[in-house]
Amino acid sequence: MAQAAAVAKPPAPPRRRRASATPRRLPYLLIAPAALLMLGFIAYPVLSVFYYSLQNYNPTKPWRNGFAGLGNFTQAFAHDPQFWSTLTFSAQWVVVEVGLQLLFGLALALIVNQTFVGRALGRALVFSPWAVSGVLTSAIWVLLYNSQTGITRYLADAGIGSYGTSWLSDTSTVFPAAVVADLWRGVPFFAILILADLQSVSKDLYEAAEVDGAGRLKQFWHITLPHLKDAIVLATLLRAVWEFNNVDLLYTLTGGGPAGETTTLPLYIANTSVDAHNFGYASALTTVAFVILLFCSVVYLRLSKFGGEAK
Description:
Blueprint: H1 2-6, H2 22-52, E1 55-56, E2 66-67, H3 71-79, H4 81-112, H5 119-127, H6 134-144, H7 151-157, H8 174-198, H9 203-211, H10 216-227, H11 229-244, H12 248-253, H13 265-275, H14 279-304
Antiparallel strand pairs: 1-2
Protein backbone atom coordinates (compact mmCIF):
# COMPACT_ATOMS: atom_id res chain seq x y z
CA MET A 1 0.00 0.00 0.00
CA ALA A 2 2.80 2.34 0.99
CA GLN A 3 4.68 1.54 -2.18
CA ALA A 4 1.54 2.13 -4.24
CA ALA A 5 0.96 5.43 -2.53
CA ALA A 6 4.57 6.40 -3.11
CA VAL A 7 4.19 6.01 -6.85
CA ALA A 8 2.98 9.38 -8.06
CA LYS A 9 0.28 9.39 -10.66
CA PRO A 10 1.12 11.32 -13.81
CA PRO A 11 -0.76 14.61 -14.04
CA ALA A 12 -3.79 14.61 -16.28
CA PRO A 13 -3.28 16.48 -19.56
CA PRO A 14 -4.95 19.90 -19.57
CA ARG A 15 -8.24 20.03 -21.36
CA ARG A 16 -8.34 22.08 -24.48
CA ARG A 17 -10.88 24.78 -24.33
CA ARG A 18 -13.14 24.98 -27.28
CA ALA A 19 -12.49 28.04 -29.32
CA SER A 20 -15.21 30.53 -28.77
CA ALA A 21 -17.34 31.15 -31.83
CA THR A 22 -18.00 34.75 -30.81
CA PRO A 23 -14.70 36.22 -32.14
CA ARG A 24 -15.28 34.54 -35.50
CA ARG A 25 -18.84 35.82 -35.71
CA LEU A 26 -18.01 39.30 -34.46
CA PRO A 27 -17.18 40.79 -37.91
CA TYR A 28 -20.47 39.51 -39.32
CA LEU A 29 -22.37 40.87 -36.33
CA LEU A 30 -20.77 44.27 -36.82
CA ILE A 31 -21.69 44.51 -40.51
CA ALA A 32 -25.15 43.03 -39.99
CA PRO A 33 -26.90 46.43 -39.44
CA ALA A 34 -25.39 47.89 -42.62
CA ALA A 35 -26.20 44.72 -44.55
CA LEU A 36 -29.82 44.83 -43.40
CA LEU A 37 -30.11 48.49 -44.40
CA MET A 38 -28.70 47.72 -47.84
CA LEU A 39 -31.09 44.81 -48.16
CA GLY A 40 -34.01 47.03 -47.26
CA PHE A 41 -33.08 50.02 -49.41
CA ILE A 42 -31.72 48.17 -52.46
CA ALA A 43 -33.05 44.63 -52.66
CA TYR A 44 -36.65 45.47 -51.76
CA PRO A 45 -37.09 48.24 -54.39
CA VAL A 46 -35.47 46.04 -57.06
CA LEU A 47 -37.75 43.12 -56.27
CA SER A 48 -40.73 45.49 -56.21
CA VAL A 49 -39.90 46.69 -59.70
CA PHE A 50 -39.76 43.10 -60.95
CA TYR A 51 -43.10 42.40 -59.29
CA TYR A 52 -44.89 45.46 -60.69
CA SER A 53 -43.48 44.78 -64.16
CA LEU A 54 -45.87 41.82 -64.28
CA GLN A 55 -48.84 43.92 -63.15
CA ASN A 56 -51.20 46.46 -64.61
CA TYR A 57 -50.84 49.16 -61.97
CA ASN A 58 -52.17 52.66 -62.43
CA PRO A 59 -53.51 54.43 -59.31
CA THR A 60 -55.67 56.70 -61.46
CA LYS A 61 -57.39 53.68 -63.10
CA PRO A 62 -57.75 51.09 -60.33
CA TRP A 63 -60.38 49.09 -62.24
CA ARG A 64 -57.67 48.07 -64.74
CA ASN A 65 -55.17 46.92 -62.13
CA GLY A 66 -54.28 43.25 -61.96
CA PHE A 67 -51.90 40.59 -63.15
CA ALA A 68 -50.60 41.30 -66.67
CA GLY A 69 -48.03 38.55 -67.09
CA LEU A 70 -45.73 39.41 -69.97
CA GLY A 71 -48.21 41.90 -71.42
CA ASN A 72 -46.15 44.94 -70.48
CA PHE A 73 -43.07 43.49 -72.15
CA THR A 74 -45.06 42.58 -75.26
CA GLN A 75 -46.36 46.14 -75.37
CA ALA A 76 -42.83 47.54 -75.19
CA PHE A 77 -41.22 45.33 -77.82
CA ALA A 78 -44.11 44.96 -80.27
CA HIS A 79 -46.45 47.93 -79.93
CA ASP A 80 -44.48 50.90 -78.61
CA PRO A 81 -42.32 52.65 -81.24
CA GLN A 82 -41.30 55.27 -78.68
CA PHE A 83 -39.53 52.57 -76.68
CA TRP A 84 -37.26 51.75 -79.62
CA SER A 85 -36.62 55.40 -80.49
CA THR A 86 -35.66 56.26 -76.90
CA LEU A 87 -33.48 53.14 -76.64
CA THR A 88 -31.70 54.07 -79.88
CA PHE A 89 -31.11 57.62 -78.68
CA SER A 90 -29.85 56.30 -75.33
CA ALA A 91 -27.26 54.17 -77.12
CA GLN A 92 -26.22 57.11 -79.28
CA TRP A 93 -25.97 59.37 -76.24
CA VAL A 94 -23.83 56.87 -74.31
CA VAL A 95 -21.42 56.17 -77.19
CA VAL A 96 -20.86 59.84 -78.05
CA GLU A 97 -20.61 61.07 -74.45
CA VAL A 98 -18.37 58.31 -73.10
CA GLY A 99 -16.12 58.39 -76.17
CA LEU A 100 -15.59 62.16 -76.04
CA GLN A 101 -15.24 62.23 -72.26
CA LEU A 102 -12.58 59.52 -72.43
CA LEU A 103 -10.67 61.35 -75.17
CA PHE A 104 -10.68 64.75 -73.47
CA GLY A 105 -10.23 63.27 -70.00
CA LEU A 106 -7.14 61.34 -71.11
CA ALA A 107 -5.70 64.48 -72.73
CA LEU A 108 -6.31 66.55 -69.59
CA ALA A 109 -4.81 63.89 -67.34
CA LEU A 110 -1.64 63.77 -69.46
CA ILE A 111 -1.38 67.57 -69.38
CA VAL A 112 -1.83 68.06 -65.62
CA ASN A 113 0.51 65.14 -64.96
CA GLN A 114 3.37 67.24 -66.31
CA THR A 115 5.44 69.56 -64.14
CA PHE A 116 4.67 73.25 -64.71
CA VAL A 117 4.17 76.43 -62.71
CA GLY A 118 0.72 76.55 -61.10
CA ARG A 119 0.07 72.83 -61.56
CA ALA A 120 -1.91 72.58 -58.29
CA LEU A 121 -4.22 75.42 -59.36
CA GLY A 122 -4.57 73.90 -62.81
CA ARG A 123 -5.59 70.54 -61.36
CA ALA A 124 -8.15 72.20 -59.09
CA LEU A 125 -9.70 74.05 -62.04
CA VAL A 126 -9.81 70.90 -64.15
CA PHE A 127 -11.48 68.83 -61.44
CA SER A 128 -13.87 71.49 -60.11
CA PRO A 129 -16.79 70.81 -62.55
CA TRP A 130 -17.08 67.27 -61.17
CA ALA A 131 -17.95 68.73 -57.76
CA VAL A 132 -20.98 70.54 -59.20
CA SER A 133 -24.32 68.76 -58.94
CA GLY A 134 -26.18 67.72 -62.06
CA VAL A 135 -29.09 70.09 -61.48
CA LEU A 136 -26.75 73.04 -60.91
CA THR A 137 -24.81 72.11 -64.04
CA SER A 138 -28.05 72.12 -66.00
CA ALA A 139 -29.01 75.52 -64.58
CA ILE A 140 -25.62 76.97 -65.59
CA TRP A 141 -25.91 75.73 -69.15
CA VAL A 142 -29.56 76.81 -69.45
CA LEU A 143 -28.36 80.35 -68.73
CA LEU A 144 -25.47 79.99 -71.18
CA TYR A 145 -27.82 78.80 -73.91
CA ASN A 146 -30.45 81.46 -73.19
CA SER A 147 -31.37 83.23 -76.42
CA GLN A 148 -31.54 86.67 -74.76
CA THR A 149 -28.59 86.66 -72.36
CA GLY A 150 -26.48 83.66 -73.37
CA ILE A 151 -23.83 82.71 -75.88
CA THR A 152 -25.99 83.17 -78.97
CA ARG A 153 -26.57 86.84 -78.16
CA TYR A 154 -22.83 87.58 -77.99
CA LEU A 155 -22.27 85.60 -81.18
CA ALA A 156 -25.00 87.65 -82.85
CA ASP A 157 -23.28 90.84 -81.65
CA ALA A 158 -20.12 89.59 -83.38
CA GLY A 159 -22.06 88.97 -86.58
CA ILE A 160 -22.30 85.20 -86.16
CA GLY A 161 -25.86 83.90 -86.32
CA SER A 162 -29.00 85.88 -85.58
CA TYR A 163 -30.63 87.25 -82.45
CA GLY A 164 -33.19 85.12 -80.64
CA THR A 165 -31.59 81.83 -81.71
CA SER A 166 -32.07 79.01 -79.21
CA TRP A 167 -29.82 75.99 -79.67
CA LEU A 168 -31.97 73.95 -77.29
CA SER A 169 -35.11 74.51 -79.37
CA ASP A 170 -33.63 73.58 -82.74
CA THR A 171 -33.59 69.89 -83.65
CA SER A 172 -30.34 70.35 -85.60
CA THR A 173 -28.41 71.87 -82.68
CA VAL A 174 -30.01 70.47 -79.52
CA PHE A 175 -27.97 67.26 -79.47
CA PRO A 176 -24.53 68.93 -79.83
CA ALA A 177 -25.55 71.55 -77.25
CA ALA A 178 -26.57 68.90 -74.73
CA VAL A 179 -23.39 66.92 -75.42
CA VAL A 180 -21.19 69.95 -74.70
CA ALA A 181 -23.03 70.66 -71.45
CA ASP A 182 -22.55 67.11 -70.19
CA LEU A 183 -18.93 67.03 -71.36
CA TRP A 184 -18.15 69.95 -69.07
CA ARG A 185 -19.08 67.87 -66.06
CA GLY A 186 -18.10 64.39 -67.24
CA VAL A 187 -14.56 64.99 -68.53
CA PRO A 188 -13.08 65.63 -65.02
CA PHE A 189 -14.25 62.19 -63.89
CA PHE A 190 -12.02 60.50 -66.46
CA ALA A 191 -9.20 62.94 -65.76
CA ILE A 192 -9.27 62.18 -62.03
CA LEU A 193 -9.16 58.38 -62.43
CA ILE A 194 -6.59 58.39 -65.21
CA LEU A 195 -4.33 60.87 -63.42
CA ALA A 196 -4.43 58.76 -60.26
CA ASP A 197 -3.23 55.76 -62.28
CA LEU A 198 -0.60 57.80 -64.09
CA GLN A 199 1.04 58.61 -60.77
CA SER A 200 1.96 54.94 -60.31
CA VAL A 201 3.79 54.53 -63.64
CA SER A 202 7.51 54.09 -62.96
CA LYS A 203 9.70 56.76 -64.55
CA ASP A 204 12.37 54.13 -65.07
CA LEU A 205 10.26 52.66 -67.86
CA TYR A 206 10.24 55.95 -69.76
CA GLU A 207 13.98 56.42 -69.20
CA ALA A 208 14.70 52.93 -70.52
CA ALA A 209 12.45 53.61 -73.53
CA GLU A 210 14.32 56.84 -74.30
CA VAL A 211 17.62 54.98 -74.14
CA ASP A 212 16.23 52.49 -76.67
CA GLY A 213 15.26 55.38 -78.93
CA ALA A 214 11.47 55.30 -78.42
CA GLY A 215 9.71 58.59 -79.04
CA ARG A 216 6.81 60.11 -77.12
CA LEU A 217 4.20 58.37 -79.25
CA LYS A 218 5.75 54.92 -78.82
CA GLN A 219 6.15 55.50 -75.09
CA PHE A 220 2.49 56.41 -74.83
CA TRP A 221 1.37 53.41 -76.91
CA HIS A 222 3.57 50.75 -75.31
CA ILE A 223 3.95 52.02 -71.72
CA THR A 224 1.27 54.52 -70.72
CA LEU A 225 -1.75 53.05 -72.47
CA PRO A 226 -1.25 49.42 -71.33
CA HIS A 227 -0.74 50.65 -67.76
CA LEU A 228 -4.00 52.63 -67.94
CA LYS A 229 -6.02 49.74 -69.36
CA ASP A 230 -7.90 48.75 -66.20
CA ALA A 231 -8.51 52.38 -65.18
CA ILE A 232 -9.94 53.18 -68.61
CA VAL A 233 -12.13 50.06 -68.65
CA LEU A 234 -13.52 50.79 -65.19
CA ALA A 235 -14.07 54.49 -65.91
CA THR A 236 -15.83 53.87 -69.22
CA LEU A 237 -18.06 51.20 -67.71
CA LEU A 238 -19.11 53.37 -64.75
CA ARG A 239 -19.64 56.42 -66.90
CA ALA A 240 -21.60 54.45 -69.50
CA VAL A 241 -24.02 53.26 -66.82
CA TRP A 242 -24.38 56.78 -65.45
CA GLU A 243 -24.89 58.33 -68.88
CA PHE A 244 -27.47 55.70 -69.79
CA ASN A 245 -29.39 56.61 -66.62
CA ASN A 246 -28.92 60.35 -67.15
CA VAL A 247 -32.17 62.15 -66.40
CA ASP A 248 -31.45 65.37 -64.50
CA LEU A 249 -29.38 67.19 -67.13
CA LEU A 250 -31.52 66.35 -70.16
CA TYR A 251 -34.76 66.92 -68.24
CA THR A 252 -33.62 70.38 -67.10
CA LEU A 253 -32.05 71.38 -70.41
CA THR A 254 -34.59 70.11 -72.93
CA GLY A 255 -37.29 68.15 -71.12
CA GLY A 256 -36.75 65.47 -73.76
CA GLY A 257 -37.54 67.85 -76.60
CA PRO A 258 -37.81 69.34 -79.04
CA ALA A 259 -40.23 66.82 -80.55
CA GLY A 260 -38.76 64.06 -78.39
CA GLU A 261 -35.31 64.39 -79.99
CA THR A 262 -33.46 64.09 -76.66
CA THR A 263 -35.69 61.62 -74.81
CA THR A 264 -33.63 58.78 -73.37
CA LEU A 265 -35.13 55.53 -72.12
CA PRO A 266 -34.80 56.51 -68.41
CA LEU A 267 -36.43 59.87 -69.17
CA TYR A 268 -39.24 58.05 -70.98
CA ILE A 269 -39.62 55.78 -67.94
CA ALA A 270 -39.80 58.81 -65.66
CA ASN A 271 -42.48 60.44 -67.81
CA THR A 272 -44.45 57.17 -68.00
CA SER A 273 -44.47 56.71 -64.24
CA VAL A 274 -44.66 60.28 -62.90
CA ASP A 275 -46.78 61.96 -65.56
CA ALA A 276 -48.89 59.08 -66.89
CA HIS A 277 -49.00 57.18 -63.54
CA ASN A 278 -48.53 53.92 -65.46
CA PHE A 279 -46.23 52.31 -62.90
CA GLY A 280 -46.69 48.78 -64.19
CA TYR A 281 -45.50 49.60 -67.69
CA ALA A 282 -42.73 51.84 -66.32
CA SER A 283 -41.53 48.96 -64.14
CA ALA A 284 -41.40 46.69 -67.18
CA LEU A 285 -39.32 49.28 -69.05
CA THR A 286 -37.02 49.58 -66.01
CA THR A 287 -36.56 45.81 -65.97
CA VAL A 288 -35.65 45.83 -69.65
CA ALA A 289 -33.14 48.63 -69.06
CA PHE A 290 -31.65 46.69 -66.13
CA VAL A 291 -31.20 43.55 -68.24
CA ILE A 292 -29.65 45.55 -71.09
CA LEU A 293 -27.15 47.23 -68.76
CA LEU A 294 -26.29 43.96 -67.04
CA PHE A 295 -25.74 42.13 -70.32
CA CYS A 296 -23.65 44.92 -71.87
CA SER A 297 -21.56 45.26 -68.70
CA VAL A 298 -20.75 41.54 -68.57
CA VAL A 299 -19.89 41.41 -72.28
CA TYR A 300 -17.75 44.54 -72.02
CA LEU A 301 -15.78 43.21 -69.05
CA ARG A 302 -15.25 39.87 -70.78
CA LEU A 303 -14.09 41.44 -74.06
CA SER A 304 -11.83 43.95 -72.31
CA LYS A 305 -10.34 41.25 -70.04
CA PHE A 306 -10.60 43.58 -67.07
CA GLY A 307 -8.08 42.71 -64.35
CA GLY A 308 -5.90 40.67 -66.66
CA GLU A 309 -2.33 41.43 -67.66
CA ALA A 310 -1.97 43.81 -70.54
CA LYS A 311 0.02 42.45 -73.43
